[in-house]
Amino acid sequence: MANLDGTSKTDLLTSGFNSYPNAIVYSSFRRKIFWTDKGQYPKIEMANADGTERVTLLDGDVDSNFTDPTGICLGPTEQLLYWTDTTENTIEVLNLDDRQRFSTTIGNSTYVHDIHPFGIARYFEDIYFSDIRFDGVYVIDFPAGNVALASMKLPIPAEIHIYADTSCPGGNFCASTGTCVINQRQPDATFRCICDEGYNGKHCDLNIDDCVPDLCMNGGTCTDGINSFTCDCVAGYTNNICSEKY
C-alpha cells in the first residue's frame, strides 16, 4: 500500500501465499481488500484494508471446480464478488452476504464460442473480460449473458481496469460525511452513499457510537468521538481505557 505519489509504502501481507497473489480489488463500502492467489493450492482471500483479520473465502482444497482464479472485481453494490478461472474457463460469482457461489450466464455470441477469461471488470450492468488466447477484450451484457467483442488484436491482454465518473448527477444525496455514487443505470438509476470513517446510515449522517461496546474499565466514563472514543478515568486509574492503577 502507498500514497498515489508512491510515498509511504507499507507491506500489508508478506506471507501465507501459495505462489503469488495475482489480482486485487478494494471495497470502499466494506473497507476490505480481496485477492486471488494462484498456485498449487489456489485461494480467494479477504482482509481489512490494513491487512488484519485475514479470511479465506474459497479454497482449492475444499471447493470444487476452483482451479486457477485469476482476475477479480466487485459488482456495483459491492455485494457480489466476480472472478475468472483460466483453467475452468469460467466467470463465477460469490455473494459476500450469504457466501453463495454461482456462475454467470454466457449466452449467444457472434464472436466467441468458447471463452478463456483472464482479467475482469464490472461496469454497471456490463462485465468486461480479457481473453489471452484470442487476444481480445469482450463485454457481457448482464444478466442476459450475450457476449460482444469490445476490442481485438491486443498483444496478450491481461488485467482490465475501468475508470469512470460514477458520482451522482444533480447534486449530492449524502451528508457531507459521505460520497454519493451510482449503483446502476438501468432500468432506473439508483444511488448509495459511501460513508467516511466513523459514520453510517443511508445518507451517512449517523455518527457511529464508538462507546458501544464500552471499553472503559474500572468505572471510567466513555465519551464518543469521530471513529474514536476517550475514557475519563476515576481517581486511581489511568491510560486510554482506565485499566492501569497508579
UniProtKB/TrEMBL annotation:
Q: Which UniProt keywords apply?
A: Disulfide bond, EGF-like domain, Glycoprotein, Repeat, Signal
Disulfide bond: present as a keyword of the record?
yes
The protein's matches in Pfam families, at most eight in alphabetical order, are given as:
hEGF (PF12661), Ldl_recept_b (PF00058)
Annotated SUPFAM superfamilies: EGF/Laminin, YWTD domain
The organism's superkingdom is given as Eukaryota
Q: EGF-like domain location, by residue?
A: 164-205, 207-243
Alphabetical list of CDD domains matching this protein: EGF_CA (cd00054)
Q: Where are the LDL-receptor class B repeats?
A: 31-78
Q: List the disulfide bonds.
A: 195-204, 233-242
Classification via SMART domains: EGF, EGF_CA, LY
| Gene Ontology MF: a single term | calcium ion binding
What InterPro entries does UniProt report for this protein, alphabetically?
6-blade_b-propeller_TolB-like (IPR011042), Cueball_EGF_LRP_Nidogen (IPR050778), EGF (IPR000742), EGF-like_Ca-bd_dom (IPR001881), EGF-like_CS (IPR013032), EGF-type_Asp/Asn_hydroxyl_site (IPR000152), EGF_Ca-bd_CS (IPR018097), LDLR_classB_rpt (IPR000033)
UniProt entry tagged with the keyword Glycoprotein? yes
Name by which UniProt lists this protein: EGF-like domain-containing protein
- Origin organism is Strongylocentrotus purpuratus (Purple sea urchin)
